[in-house]
Amino acid sequence: MSKNSDESNLVLSSRIRLARNIDKVPFPIRIDEEKGKELIKDVENVFYISPEIKEDYITNYLWNLDEVTDNSFLEKHLISPRLINNYKKSAFILNKDQTVSIMLNEEDHIRLQCITAGLNLEEAFKDANKLDDIIEDKLNYAFDENLGYLTACPTNLGTGLRASVMIHLPVLSMSKEITQLYNAVTQIGMTIRGLYGEGSNADGNVYQISNQISLGVTEEEIINNINAVVNQIINQENIAREHLLKNRKYELEDKIFRSLGILKSAVLMNSKECLSLLSNVRMGIEMGIINDISSQTINELFVSLQPATLQLLVNKKLNDKERDLERAKLIREKLK
Amino acid sequence: MSKNSDESNLVLSSRIRLARNIDKVPFPIRIDEEKGKELIKDVENVFYISPEIKEDYITNYLWNLDEVTDNSFLEKHLISPRLINNYKKSAFILNKDQTVSIMLNEEDHIRLQCITAGLNLEEAFKDANKLDDIIEDKLNYAFDENLGYLTACPTNLGTGLRASVMIHLPVLSMSKEITQLYNAVTQIGMTIRGLYGEGSNADGNVYQISNQISLGVTEEEIINNINAVVNQIINQENIAREHLLKNRKYELEDKIFRSLGILKSAVLMNSKECLSLLSNVRMGIEMGIINDISSQTINELFVSLQPATLQLLVNKKLNDKERDLERAKLIREKLK
Predict the structure, then answer these.
(1) DSSP-derived secondary structure for A1-38
(2) Which pLDDT tens digit goes with each residue over A123-153?
(3) pLDDT at A196
């Protein structure tokens, strides 16, 4: 997620996830520890050996990780709560840039994720496809001519593909439009939800839009549909911003610059307030009101100031108050 | 009010006011315009002619001033609402530093005020006394052997002296102690009130403590009593601050630095919020938490950001929102 040069971009990242299972091996829910670890070994063997893999990858075995490390990967969306639940028999293969994460023994045997900066599902899909081919070349996937790829949960049948886009909607969030959006998006078979998935609030006004169904449509159709919807939403958000800028310019600037001022000077800062202030500053950057900070800096803060990641950064266990103190310190340093 | 080098000083200023009337001339309430202007001329004649007057003084005639200018002098405590009410026959003599203001035809013929920085009623009294002598030397004051100086309102009989001290009490203001203080101070014949006199709220946590009675006590006793009470209050405020610093250090620092951060970055700022934030920053300076801003800068902002003074500074009529905009701009420049 490092090369997002377009500061006006409301899309933080695009993500493709493929769900795959090995033929004739029980789904992870029914697999025991020994067989689970065998499956991990099998995937590793075909993956690391391939001449196509030129980047540095490592496997993280969940049974070796502590809770804070688990949660930090979770905060970065590189793993899921279910992978943590299956910790005795689960793992994930991660590249150095943390743009690829292949979860093993999550709900399915293989959950292959590729992430790109900005709105670029095509590139993410291309990357995912390439990695998928490497595995499929040597291992037999569970596949049915009519149903497509077979998955533990029927919602993932077919392409096994979920495409999702993280989008920053601070102005639509303020109004009732966001509720209308929720309804409209759901009606066309998509889901919109907060930063941390199902049931989570949209902290920092970041929403995740993804397809609900992967059966009976092609990969290309899924991606095209998401792109169309996202572009439509970007358009709505931009119209709402222009309206605000025209009618309440000073109030908007006040909100943005105060948020930056508080981030630069606070001594204590909780996670919720932090996300809200960062959202305002990000809006300022996207709208060209703030020019001396990059949206990249804000993206990094968005992630690194989450509780677990923060503790890994300062390398010690922190209670709530200590976290608020360290978080504020880190922001001040980062924004100096 | 320019030479307050002790940054830990909670006292913004000390002020002595003497009420005097010319013998055999009706009190201002009963005087007509012509006689009122004659009286002004009489005082000016003895005042400006004296070899003791070495500083630059000018007379401001209220009938020549516009509303914004009136209100700016009011915001600086150099004149009173009553002087403005009597605008057809009232004036005041002002020195360049604005530490001396001699109101003519306010409630009494002469209301002579001297102001010093910090807690220094003795110096203010010395200055007031000297100027009073100059006038008394040439004009007959209304004086009674038993009642002392005769004044329009009986509360000013006797010495005609009111001593008052402006003191910054942010921590006592937060707690119930301020109510106890109100009661205690009233019981010993003194008054405590907000920055803008009777009935006003203590905006910016600045309180004015003054004597209620001027009859049956000497000038020295009045000043000693106020000093004793003020020192006692300073002590209480400092104890409360130490307690806060010991128990809620980070919360205190957070409040102080956020206030400074907002002042440095806001685009819109109303007067009430401004005073409250400046109070927090002043506390930070007084407690040695902020070291790169002088309390002098804050004192100047306290005054210059009041609505009328602000309009004089930018030299144009401003509506509410324009004032909030100009105020924020001025603060940002001043604190840069």
Answers:
(1) ------TT--EEEEEEEEEE-BTTS--GGG--HHHHHH
(2) 999 999 999 999 999 999 999 999 999 999 9
(3) 56
**Which chain B residues touch A262 with a CB distance below 8 Å?**
258, 261-262
Q: Touching check for A261 and chain B: CB below 8 Å?
A: yes
Set of chain B residues whose Cβ sits within 8 Å of the Cβ of A260: 265
The model carries a pTM of 0.88
Interface test with A, best of B247, B257, B327 (most A CBs within 10 A): B257
Q: Between chains, do B250 and A260 touch, taking CB under 8 Å as contact?
A: no
Nearest to A266 among B258, B264, B268 (CB): B258
The conformation of residue B23, written as its DSSP 8-state character, comes to T
Interface contact A250-B260, CB threshold 8 A: no
B180 vs B202: CA distance, rounded Å: 15
Residue of chain B whose alpha carbon sits nearest to that of A257? B265
Res. B196 pLDDT band, cuts 50 70 90: low
- Neighbour count for residue B101 (Cβ, 10 Å): 24
Residue A149 tokens read as: 């790829």
ipTM entry? 0.86
Q: Who among A257, A268, A321 is closest to B267 (CB)? A: A257
Best of B247, B249, B250, B280 to disrupt the A interface (most A CBs within 10 Å) is: B250
Q: What is the pLDDT of residue B2?
A: 40
What's the Cα-to-Cα distance from B215 to each of A6, A178, B21, B146, B161, rounded to whole Å? 76, 70, 16, 10, 9
Q: How far apart are CA B300 and CA B290, in angstroms?
A: 17
C-beta atoms surrounding B177 within 10 Å: 18
Share above pLDDT 90 across residues of chain B, in percent, rounded to a whole number? 79
